[in-house]
Amino acid sequence: MVVCGLACWRCRWLLPLLLGLAIIMGIIALAGRGWLESESEPYVQQASLWESCTRGEDDLNWSCESLMDYGWGRAAAATYLVGFVILVICFALAVIAFSIEVLRFNFVRGIGGLLFVVAAFQIIGLVIYPVKFTEDIPLTGDNMFSWAYGFGWASTVVVIGCAFFFCCLPNWEDEVLGNIKPTYYYSSPERAPYLN
C-alpha cells in the first residue's frame, strides 16, 4: 500500500500547483471590476482596485474616477501588487526547487518565508481598500464587496496555507527523499510451547 501525502516525492508538484492557482486568483483580483458592486438593481456603483465607477439609474454610461488620486488607493494597489510580484517569484523558485533531484530544504523553507511576506502585503492591501474606500468615496444605494475582492482573499488564504507547508516540509526530509526504511509490525501468535 502506497500513501501519497504532502511529504511524498511523487506529490512534489502539489505545492507549485497551489501557488499557480493563487497566481490565477491574484490576476482575477487585479483585473476584476468586482471589488465593490451594487447589491441589487439599479446597478449604479462598481469599483475595481484601480477605479470607482458610478452611473445614474437611467444612464447607460459609467462615470469613472481613478483611485490612484488617493494616497490610500495607491497604497492598497501597491501593497497588493508587490505581494503578487513576490508570489510569482516564489512560484518560479518552487518550480526550480522541485525540478532538481537533490532538494535543498533550506531553499524550500526560504520560499515559505517569502510566502509569509506575500501574505502580509496582500492582507495590508485588502484591509486598506474597504476601510478607506467607505470613508472617502460616496456610496450610492446598497453595495457589497464582491467577487474580485473575494478572489483577492482566496489567493491570500492559499498563500498562507502554502507558506506553512513550505516551512514544514523540511521536517519530513527523510520521507520525501525516501531515506526511511519501512517499519513492519508483526503480531505473533501465542508463544510456542517449545520456547518456554
UniProtKB/TrEMBL annotation:
Xref: Gene3D superfamilies: 1.20.140.150
Stored InterPro entries: P53_induced (IPR015664), PMP22/EMP/MP20/Claudin (IPR004031)
Range of residues in the leader sequence: none
Subcellular location: Cell junction, Desmosome; Cell membrane; Cytoplasm
Organism: Sakesphorus luctuosus
Pfam families in alphabetical order: PMP22_Claudin
PANTHER family: P53 APOPTOSIS EFFECTOR RELATED TO PMP-22, P53-INDUCED PROTEIN RELATED
UniProt keyword Kinase, yes or no: no
Membrane topology (UniProt): Multi-pass membrane protein
Domain of life of the organism encoding this protein: Eukaryota
A GO CC term attached to the entry: cytoplasm
Residues that span the membrane, as ranges: 12-32, 77-98, 110-131, 151-172
The protein's name in its UniProt record: p53 apoptosis effector related to PMP-22
Family as reported in the entry's similarity comment: Belongs to the TMEM47 family.
Source organism phylogeny: Eukaryota, Metazoa, Chordata, Craniata, Vertebrata
Gene Ontology BP, a term: apoptotic process
Entry keyword set: Apoptosis, Cell adhesion, Cell junction, Cell membrane, Cytoplasm, Membrane, Transmembrane, Transmembrane helix
